[in-house]
Structures are given as structure tokens and as C-alpha cells.
Fold:
Amino acid sequence: MAVLSFLERVTDCMSPAFLAVLNMSAAAAYAVIAVLLFRLLFRRLPAKYTLPLWAAVGFRLLCPVSIKSVFSLFNLGIFDMSPIAEGNGMAFIPYDVAMMREPKVYTGIAAVNDAFSGSLPVPDPAASVNPLQVWEVIFTLLWLFGMLAFALYGAVSFVKMKKRLSRAVPLARETGIFECDGIPSPFVWGIIRPRIYLPFRMDETGRRHVIAHERAHIEGGDTVIKPFAFLLLAVHWFDPFAWAAYFCLCSDMERRADERVFADMTKGERAEYGRSLLSLASPRHGALSPLGFGESSIARRIKNALSFQKPAKWLAELVILLAAVLLLALTTNAADKAAESEGMHGATAVPGGRIAYAFSECLYMTPLSSYHVPEEGTGELYIRAGSEFLIVDAATMETKKAFQDLSWDSIAFDEAWYEQNLFAEHSENGWSLFRGPDISRYENRSYTVLDGSHLLLRMDDETWYVKLGQHGGTHAGEPYCWSIYRLERAN
Structure:
């Protein structure tokens, strides 16, 4: 029981973080697709033109918010970002999706949304457990265990390699270069002070080419980029787009290092460089090694060395301009568009795919109030947003009142609690002149406390917003019902 209690506390704390990671993965997926298409279109150009674009993917995987721009990829006509926009962030998966009566997720493409949302289980009011809440707990735990597995893999790889490299000896007349027995191929190892490790008995020509290649990795900052990319992959390990981005990034770093070496070589010298690469075609360190660069994709790199050509200056400048525009497009969010008003009871675009309610009917107003009973509406939206309940201006979306850090505990009640806590006048005979709406026809009744003066009642499939007042005189401070509004879904 202690273990289950601990896991429950962990998932309660980490579920919001997991949903944030899912939303960052969703945004990054579009960036990955765009970069892959750019690489395919300009596949004959040097990797130095495409490698910086992976920074946009890293930004999306790391940062949940961004500025808005008319240049954003998400301004394209195929996207509908109105239900996804959440301030400067994007919520493809609403943070309260597990609490929705009709769970919805968003892809940014309206035609695809229904297909994804239709696969989600709908909660049964009569059931004791919401299946989507169970899924959220299970997937959060799997995500945490996956990150733990990555951490263990990285730690074990580091310890094993550290032990193997303890037998390395410095190469004569060279700084930061070591020879080591028991390594199949050369690689660079380390972050702050990276070192180059070579197998013993390499020929002089091959050694010269390898050292130049590994130094190109160091000069290009690859020894920092790759560990950082590995950490992002560890967080987004469940995302196939993150894996594709990681391996393509590693490939582009290898290509760029090669191109730095043979950029000024003749065709014959590049052929010699290719023969050096061929001699290294042996078992090597995998791409998942978080700190090292092994020799990978030998055949592709040899082909690249033999076919390499410097692009014309005008073409290079054009590609740089296109890459800069694409980088801006992938790292910014869609600009706000003027919303078309459809009335309080029509479809309302609410940021982040949150659950929004609008006034439907005034069920009760205390006779003590001089405020008129609203008939046409209150001009407000009532929005459930994660652990918050917001009352916002329907026209400007400006927050007028916010209830924060809500646990959303739902407490069942009966007619006795209803009358005693909301409508009892506490007179000597216990009878109240104020009678609330009849609730006898409702089978499932529960309430959620927003604060000391506000409640939400769930009456079967209806939602009631209750505002409380406080008695004065001899019963000063005791609550009583001031008003009850029935709310209806506005999105």
C-alpha cells in the first residue's frame, strides 16, 4: 500500500509535466517534418546549411512557449490553431483532458481532430474510475520509467567507457590525442575538455585524416550539441519524431565534420580520404553514445566525399536566406486572428482547448439581492483550465476572477446537505423562507469547492455555478446561497 500511495503522489505531481512534454513533442513533430523536407530538397548541399535547422526542433522539444509571428509555419491555411493557442504556448492536448465529459485532442488540422478525439474513452458517470485518468497515470509512469532507463544507460555507458579509456596513453607530440587498446575505431570523448582517442597502429595517412575529422567535431561544438540532444531524446523517448531528429542530427554532424576536412582538398585527396574512411568500417560506438562521436554511416560518407562540390555563391546565399526564414517559421507560434463572434451560445474559440461554459439560465437569486436576474447572459465565460477555474470577459477574454490550485475533488451530497448548507436560515424553528431549485429529480449530485464563496455543482449532466453570501447578525459568517447559474458548454 505504501508503494501505491507513493506512486499516486508521484503521478499527481508529474502528470502536468508529462502533458507539457506531450504538447512540446506535438509542436516539434511539425518542425521535424519541415526540416526533413528541407534536407531532402537540398540534399546535395553541404550539411552546414541544414544542421542549424535542428535548433528549431530542439527549441520546440525544450520550450513550451514562443513568441507569435506572421511568419510562423502554423499560419498556413491547413492549420486551425484557434483551439490550441494558450497564451504564448500551444496545448494540442488540453491539460484537463482526463476530466472532460467529451475528451478532445487537437492536431492543428481540423479534419484530423475528430479521428484522434474519437479514439479517446468517454467517462461513464456511473463508473467509479474515469478510464482516461487511468491512462494518464499509466502513461506518466511509463514516461518516468523510460527516462530512468535512459539515465541508467547513460551512466553505465559512461562508467564502462571511462574504465576502458583508463589504459589510454598520450600520442607523442600531440596535445589532447590518445591511443588506446581495445577500441575498434577512433572517436572524440568528453564535453568541456574533449579528447581524441585512436586505436593503436593506425597508418600515418589515416591518422591524419581522423584527427582532422575529430577536431572538426570539437571546433563545431558537436561535443556539446550531441549530449544536449541525448538529454532531449531521454525526455521525449516515446516520440518517433524525436528519434528521427536525433539520428539525422548525428548524421548531419558527421557530414559537416567531413566537409570541413575535405572542403579544400582536390578530388584525388578526397578519394584518399574516402579510403581512410573505408579502413574504419568496423564495429563502432553507437549513435546513442551520449558523449562520443564514432565513425558511422561509412558508405554514405565516402559517397559524399567523392561527390562533394562547393555550391555557387548565389545558391549558397539563397539557401541561407531560406533556412533563416524556415528557422523563424518553426520557432514562432501562429499570430492571433480576429475571431468571428457567434454569440454566447455558439461555438467559442477558447485558448488551449480548455473546457468553456457560458450562462444558460439563472436558477436562483436570493431575495436579499438588489441585482436583477440575468436573462440574456452574463457576458462571461467560465473556463476550466487545468487546476484553475477562470471567469473571463467573453468579448476580450480578459480574466475577471481566477480560482487557482484546485484539486477538483468531487464530493457527493444529498438533499439534506443541500438544504442545510445553502438554504437554511437557522431560525428558531429551522425553517427557511428561501427555497432553492428542486433537486429531487437528479440522481448523481456532487460539488467542488472553488473557494469559500463559490461552488460548482454537478447535477447529472448539468453544471451549476453557485455563489455564496454570508449571514450577518447573530449568524455572522455563516454561508447561504446567493445565486445559482446553470452553465452550458460553449465550445
